[in-house]
Design brief:
three-stranded antiparallel beta sheet, mainly alpha, 180 residues
């Protein structure tokens, strides 16, 4: 037995079967176009963040890769470790907005379609690019100075002096490692 509008009805009316398959294919093609449009918009996304002092500006794409990095003249006075921290903090701040912007594109292009897929994708993005806890990472304190070491006893533990090398002589240990 078949139910109304079931497979039996389709077999009796091949034109209806063809129309339903055409409708299904058209719906599938329209869905593919919406997903293609969402992908293209997502690939064009750029998010920019600047450090609190304006010294560093970082732009990232929707996949989190850095697409632009600019500095103001302020960085000339930055110690290198502070510059590194500022760049990474600013990059993370730019990346933290990725999930929200992708969610906006998906909502605009796909509406309520495929909520489960969207939830999985956005959860993945939020996991990869979480909101930073603080606007700037705190500067770690310098490690305490190492305690002074007592001088070695005379002659104890002192390696023997290497024999002097002739001018132009090659160290035999380095000979094997020299590619030239």
């Amino acid at each position: 037995m078949t139910s109304p509008n079931g497979l039996g009805d389709l077999m009796r009316d091949p034109d209806e079967a063809i129309r339903r398959m055409d409708d299904w294919a058209a719906g599938f093609a329209a869905k593919a176009e919406r997903y293609q449009a969402a992908q293209e918009q997502t690939e064009r996304l750029r998010l920019t963040a600047s450090s609190s002092d304006g010294a560093v500006s970082v732009t990232v794409g929707a996949d989190g890769t850095v697409t632009d990095l600019t500095f103001s003249n302020k960085i000339k006075s930055f110690p290198l470790d502070e510059l590194s921290r500022t760049i990474l903090t600013t990059m993370r701040r730019a990346q933290s907005g990725i999930a929200e912007r992708v969610a906006g594109v998906m909502s605009e292009e796909l509406g309520d379609e495929d909520r489960e897929t969207r939830t999985l994708l956005l959860d993945n993005l939020r996991g990869r690019f979480p909101d930073p806890d603080e606007p700037d990472d705190p500067v770690p304190a310098d490690p305490p100075p190492a305690p002074p070491q007592p001088p070695p006893a005379a002659g104890a533990g002192t390696p023997p002096a290497s024999p002097p090398r002739r001018a132009g002589a090659t160290d035999p240990d380095e000979q094997d490692n020299n590619p030239w």
